[in-house]
Design goal:
mainly alpha, globular, about 500 residues
């Protein structure tokens, strides 16, 4: 039985006898899906018995959970909205960004994941900064302080940006005012994140990852059937659609030549550098895997999910181009929801689109628990010196709640441009900077704590200066900062004596 027959039966039995406006179906499915996520998060929170459970799920994550959680957190709305939108607007040239991301993710899973898992177990590290401080014990206090402060500040603002994004999404979908949408987004995320911490977050991520991969595999397949059986669309073929959309849609380098084409390629591929252990919210998933056997399982699932998802996201954007034609959507990132609503029955489409909303939520809760555990474990805990596990766990939950409330307040009162500007520094300033520190910590025995400090501070400030000066429009900060930080780290290792 092909997809069309299945969907026709679905419509005849369920939809037609009980007609319901599409926006009502979307609202009901969204509410049901989000309530399920909240329930799952609370259920998983009941398993949290101490602060290690709260911060890193007791370092007992099954491989499949770690892999799916890492992918949901790493991709968020990018795989469902951003990449299809870019493929719709730019065509085949967007493949360089996709290749950069995929190669970075595959490299991280293949070379780094199991090493970071083993290192976290060896040093009993509960957080990203905890691990760096343990490895560079000669200046552990300063490494912990600089790393944690940087992570808390930028990712805390990132949470605020996710609240803003949630408000805008609910406004677009249901006409809810962004101010109320932000509050609703926060009320969905905050309760189970406070209660269960990392344990709750990773298991809700699993649901998001499954919905995402279903959308990105079944969506293109059904899309091809739709194109073949609906002659009224812009084009019945992706190839013809690309060639007809614009002079550059079917060109690998967007019509550029020579040095300009090279810079275009490098700019897209530069996303590779941020995936090499430098994004703490992803590295924490590696560190939480239960054992070496589970790490191999996680690697296989993570890599397979990534390759399939990125191919699907690119195809979905191009299928949207073939259906609607170029420049017909008010926002290019609407291409995935618009395509899904076109090719699927309303109820199923609502579920898949809700998955995009939930994917954004999975990023917000991951960043919130990351910020709170970094603050609790590495900044507050050393000063309070509490030994009672129950009090430490209570402290972590209180800090999570306070951070969430303050992040929401900042999202309300701060200029949106300021928040998104600061967030724009994250991938280059934190991802590429910490990637260098992690790589050298793992693979170069001579690399020491003082050099790590110099690399962290210089990389962060260099990114701010580079982006603020406008040079990022000439050469992407992700590429330049990775190599700048690498040079600083190597020179510092040789020129600054280690503290014995």
């Amino acid at each position: 039985m092909d997809f069309r027959v299945t969907f026709n039966i679905f419509r005849e039995i369920i939809i037609k006898p009980y007609p319901m406006p599409e926006n009502v179906q979307l609202a009901l499915v969204t509410i049901g899906y989000l309530m399920f996520l909240i329930g799952l998060g609370v259920y998983q929170g009941q398993k949290v018995k101490n602060n290690t459970d709260y911060a890193i799920a007791g370092r007992k994550l099954p491989g499949w959970v770690a892999a799916l959680s890492e992918r949901a957190t790493g991709e968020s709305s990018w795989a469902l909205l951003g990449l299809p939108g870019a493929a719709y607007a730019m065509g085949i040239a967007e493949i360089w960004t996709a290749i950069g991301c995929v190669v970075g993710i595959v490299t991280a899973w293949w070379l780094l994941a199991w090493r970071l898992r083993n290192e976290a177990e060896k040093y009993s590290a509960n957080t990203f900064s905890d691990y760096l401080a343990a490895r560079h014990g000669e200046v552990a206090k300063w490494v912990r302080l600089v790393s944690s402060t940087t992570i808390v500040f930028f990712f805390f603002l990132y949470v605020g940006a996710q609240f803003l994004g949630g408000g805008k999404t609910l406004d677009t979908m249901f006409g809810i005012k962004p101010q109320w949408g932000m509050l609703i987004t926060a009320l969905i995320i905050i309760p189970y994140t406070i209660y269960g911490g990392f344990q709750s977050v990773v298991y809700t991520d699993v649901v998001q990852a499954l919905v995402m991969i279903f959308t990105l595999t079944v969506g293109p397949i059904v899309g091809f059937f739709y194109l073949a059986n609906h002659p009224e669309v812009y084009s019945g073929s992706i190839t013809i659609a690309l060639e007809s959309a614009s002079p550059t849609h079917a060109l690998l380098f967007n019509g550029l030549k020579g040095a300009a084409a090279g810079m275009f390629l490098v700019g897209g591929f530069s996303w590779f550098f941020g995936y090499l252990g430098g994004m703490p919210q992803l590295t924490m998933r590696f560190m939480a895997i239960k054992d070496a056997r589970q790490a191999k399982l996680a690697r296989n699932i993570g890599i397979t999910w990534t390759v399939v998802a990125y191919i699907g996201a690119m195809l979905l954007g191009m299928i949207g181009l073939a259906i609607f034609g170029p420049n017909t959507l008010s926002d290019r990132e609407y291409v995935m929801p618009a395509t899904i609503m076109k090719i699927f029955p309303p109820a199923l489409a609502a579920l898949l689109i809700t998955g995009a909303i939930a994917a954004m939520i999975s990023t917000a809760d991951s960043l919130l628990v990351l910020s709170s555990t970094e603050l609790s474990e590495n900044i507050v805990k050393p000063f309070r010196r509490i030994n009672d596990e129950r009090l430490i766990l209570r402290q972590s939950r209180i800090i999570t709640a306070l951070l969430a409330i303050v992040a929401l307040a900042i999202a309300y009162v701060s200029p949106q441009k300021l928040i998104f500007t600061l967030v724009s520094y994250v991938w280059a300033g934190i991802g590429c900077t910490f990637s260098v520190v992690i790589l050298l910590t793992l693979f170069w025995r001579s690399f020491h704590g003082r050099a790590a400090l110099a690399a962290m501070v210089s990389g962060l400030f260099f990114t701010i200066v580079w982006i603020s000066s406008g040079m990022d429009k000439v050469v992407t900060a992700k590429l330049v900062n990775f190599f700048f930080t690498l040079i600083v780290a190597v020179l510092s290792t040789y020129l600054i004596p280690s503290k014995k």
